[in-house]
Specification:
Elements: E1 7-13, H1 21-32, E2 37-42, H2 52-56, H3 61-72, E3 75-79, H4 89-98, E4 111-117, H5 125-137, E5 141-142, E6 149-150, H6 166-185
The protein binds flavin mononucleotide.
Flavin mononucleotide binds at residues 15, 17, 20-22, 81-85, 118-120, 122.
Length: 187
């Protein structure tokens, strides 16, 4: 048993599709989290497109729930796909909502980890890179290393979305241990 106080991590996948590799990666993270670390996955399906008029009328319920879940967590783990060499709109939109209001944002000074999966050879590297840039503006504490780039994702999950590749499971477990240590630096 770990003697450190328990940590809660909010997992967010930047894909809405049922068979998402990135969501499957987060499900594997739930199983592989080290002792004393609990990961809960937040579904972005109820987060609408950012619209300042909606925001002015009060955060829509899906946005309010998202911000609340971020605030309640000790850290946020984002699993992002890569679309056209960048961050998919679903993920960027969620970050945009959670970046507001700028001086009291849910993401402000929040420890953040970025991972991702793609069937291609780069494992969402460019999507991850672009997503990290957003955390400069939100003043989030984005962990620089280690990275987790799950390339050729279709070979690493079974048909039920279980992460079956032993090396990736090991890499993910090491990543989560490092992320827990990163979060504890800011407590
Ligand atoms: C519009 C679009 C653009 C894409 N562009 C890229 C890309 O630039 N690089 C890449 O590795 N995969 C790209 N892909 C493939 C995605 O990586 C793949 O669909 C992946 O499974 C999406 O993540 P998910 O499984 O979590 O939904 C693209 C897919 C779509 C739909």
């Amino acid at each position: 048993m770990s003697e450190d106080p328990p940590l809660s991590i909010l997992g967010v996948a930047g894909s809405l599709r049922q068979g998402s590799f990135n969501r499957a990666l987060l499900r594997a993270a739930v199983d592989l989290a080290p002792d004393g670390v609990r990961i809960e996955i937040f579904d972005l399906a109820a987060v609408p497109l950012y619209n300042a008029d909606l925001e002015a009328a009060g955060d829509p319920p899906g946005v309010a729930a998202f911000k609340q879940a971020i605030r309640a967590a000790d850290g946020v783990l984002l699993a992002t796909p890569e679309y056209n060499h960048g961050v998919p709109g679903v993920m960027k939109n969620a970050v945009d909502w959670a970046s507001r209001p700028p001086r009291d944002a849910a993401l402000g000074e929040k420890p953040v980890g970025v991972i991702g999966a793609s069937p291609g050879m780069t494992g969402s590297a460019r999507g991850q890179s672009q997503l990290r840039q957003a955390f400069e503006f939100t003043n989030s504490f984005c962990m620089p290393q280690p990275e987790l780039l799950v390339f050729r994702a279709h070979e690493k999950f079974d048909d039920d979305g279980r992460l079956t590749d032993a090396a990736t499971r090991e890499h993910l477990a090491r990543y989560l241990t490092a992320f827990a240590a990163w979060i504890r630096r800011f407590r």
